[in-house]
Design the sequence.
């Protein structure tokens, strides 16, 4: 099982970090979790073209996690030459988002269908709205859906992906909660959005302080990982994003709370579980 941090940035534009998205390659599956800004640049940077994806899994519908979902839909359609159906899983509301994206792409779809003989129908997208407790089988992997707490954003979910040999939990955004603990328990790896509350508080803008109540701090992520006895804690979607190269210093607080392996880094940081 290989986990690649495609985009590690915060919601704010950063020339060196794409928006939140992570790729998990396991069994026969290539799974994209969230589709933030610039996701396809990083996907191709990781050696995967969009039409190779088995499915897209959305943790929630905050704009920073779906910014480039429309681009994913277009490129999957065009690069598969209409042979494939893009599977998108996400919480309730995902169908509405995809319908809206397809409506926005309407003129473009018309141009391409009119221009290319091979394209006749437009993007084929299959949306599955998931709920906590659901299990999905893709490419030899079992994907368990769990409830997360990113209130007031609802509904939000995390995913536990198992290939029989290894398991990884994608916690998405959110704060510690019992259902996240259940999802994380005993996983080999745990990918979590992480925030430095001290840095956020130092920003003299009250609007930034609003993010404090619905993201795990680095310490909380470490505590969740320790409670779940996970082997590897992978931090991503850094809020606020540190300069590339400063991630380890940024995450120094982890070692007081978690004694497993810690992974932080720039976009395209990859972890192989073996
Ligand atoms: Zn969010
Ligand atoms: Zn986010």
Sequence:
């Amino acid at each position: 099982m290989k986990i690649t941090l495609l985009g590690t940035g915060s919601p704010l534009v950063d020339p060196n970090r794409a928006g939140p998205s992570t790729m998990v390659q396991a069994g026969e599956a290539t799974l994209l979790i969230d589709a933030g800004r610039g996701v396809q640049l990083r996907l191709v940077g990781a050696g995967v073209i969009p039409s190779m994806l088995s499915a897209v899994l959305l943790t929630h519908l905050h704009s920073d996690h779906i910014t480039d979902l429309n681009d994913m839909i277009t490129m999957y359609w065009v690069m598969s030459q209409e042979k494939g159906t893009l599977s998108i899983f996400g919480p309730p509301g995902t169908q509405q988002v995809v319908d809206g994206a397809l409506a926005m792409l309407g003129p473009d779809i018309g141009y391409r269908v009119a221009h290319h003989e091979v394209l006749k129908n437009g993007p084929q997208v299959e949306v599955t709205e998931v709920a906590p407790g659901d299990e999905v089988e893709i490419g030899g992997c079992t994907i368990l859906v769990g409830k997360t707490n990113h209130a007031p954003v609802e509904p939000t979910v995390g995913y536990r992906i198992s290939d029989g040999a290894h398991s990884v939990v994608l916690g998405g955004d959110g704060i510690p909660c019992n259902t996240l603990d259940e999802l994380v328990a005993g996983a080999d790896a745990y990918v979590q959005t992480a925030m430095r509350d001290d840095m956020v508080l130092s920003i003299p803008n009250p609007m930034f302080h609003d993010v404090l109540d619905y993201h795990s701090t680095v310490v909380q992520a470490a505590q969740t990982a320790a409670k779940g006895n996970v082997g590897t804690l992978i931090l991503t979607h850094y809020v606020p994003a540190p300069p590339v190269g400063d991630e380890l210093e940024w995450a120094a607080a982890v070692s007081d709370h978690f004694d497993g392996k810690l992974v932080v880094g720039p976009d395209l940081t990859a972890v192989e579980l073996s």
